[in-house]
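R.M. (postdoc): so does anyone remember the format we settled on? I'll just put the structure tokens first.
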């Protein structure tokens, strides 16, 4: 589940960038019901792009802004409720990390879906069923989860 966070230069310190990315990771795992799943946790990856302030625009003018893009397999966060929950949490994460340097209305999010069989990890193409199997095999048994 790659996450791409793009922000204007000066919006987030290096520490705040790391905090934001960790928060985005937690948000997607939590909303997907996969917190603690070793396979998925290891495969929530991504990048942070910091662009010169004059290269981040809204209405054709430079603005302090953030863009959050989440790429998923087409069966993940499949309900409208799940999508709304991730977008709200992701916006909260970035807004908090920016510590007042960004207006909430200047945080945009989108979710992009990969079609069946178009997901690859370590050179292996996964079908939706393959991914569900890998996730299920790494699931933390309920008994063990409650002991932790």
């Amino acid at each position: 589940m790659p996450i791409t966070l793009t922000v204007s230069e000066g919006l987030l310190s290096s520490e705040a960038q790391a905090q934001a990315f960790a928060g985005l990771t937690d948000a997607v795992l939590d909303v997907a019901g996969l917190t603690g799943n070793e396979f998925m946790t290891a495969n929530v990856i991504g990048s942070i792009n910091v662009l010169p302030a004059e290269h981040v625009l809204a209405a054709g003018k430079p603005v302090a802004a953030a863009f959050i893009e989440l790429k998923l397999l087409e069966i993940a966060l499949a309900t409208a409720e799940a999508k709304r929950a991730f977008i709200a949490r992701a916006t909260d994460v970035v807004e908090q990390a920016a510590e007042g340097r960004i207006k909430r209305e200047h945080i945009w999010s989108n979710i992009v879906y990969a079609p069946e069989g178009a997901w690859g990890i370590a050179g292996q193409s996964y079908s939706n069923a393959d991914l569900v199997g890998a996730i299920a095999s790494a699931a933390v048994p309920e008994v063990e989860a409650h002991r932790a």
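R.M.: ...and that's the designed sequence above, right after the tokens. Also worth knowing: Residues 80-98 form the longest helix (19 residues). Strands lie at 3-8, 46-51, 57-58, 61-62, 66-73, 107-114, 119-121, 124-126.
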